[in-house]
Amino acid sequence: MSRNLILRESQIMKVHYITGVAALFVVAVHILMRLVVPYGSSLEYDHVIFNYHNIFYAVLLEVILVLVSIHGFNGLRVILLELRQSTRWENSVTATIIAMIGLVIYGTRTIIIANGLGT
Amino acid sequence: MSGADERKITLKVFRANTARSKNTYFELCDVPVQRWTTVLDGLLYAKCFIDPSIGIRYSCRMASCGSCGMKINGIPRLACYTKMSELGGSEVICEPLPNFPIIRDLVTDFSQFFEHHKRVQPYILNQDNHQTDAVSSDHRQSPEEVDRFLQFSYCIKCGLCYSACPTVATDLKFPGPQTLGQLYRYYADSRDGGGKDRLNMVDDRHGIWRCHFAGSCSKVCPKGVDPALGIQLLKSYMLGISKNRGK
Question: Domain map of chain A by residue range?
Answer without folding.
Answer: 9-115
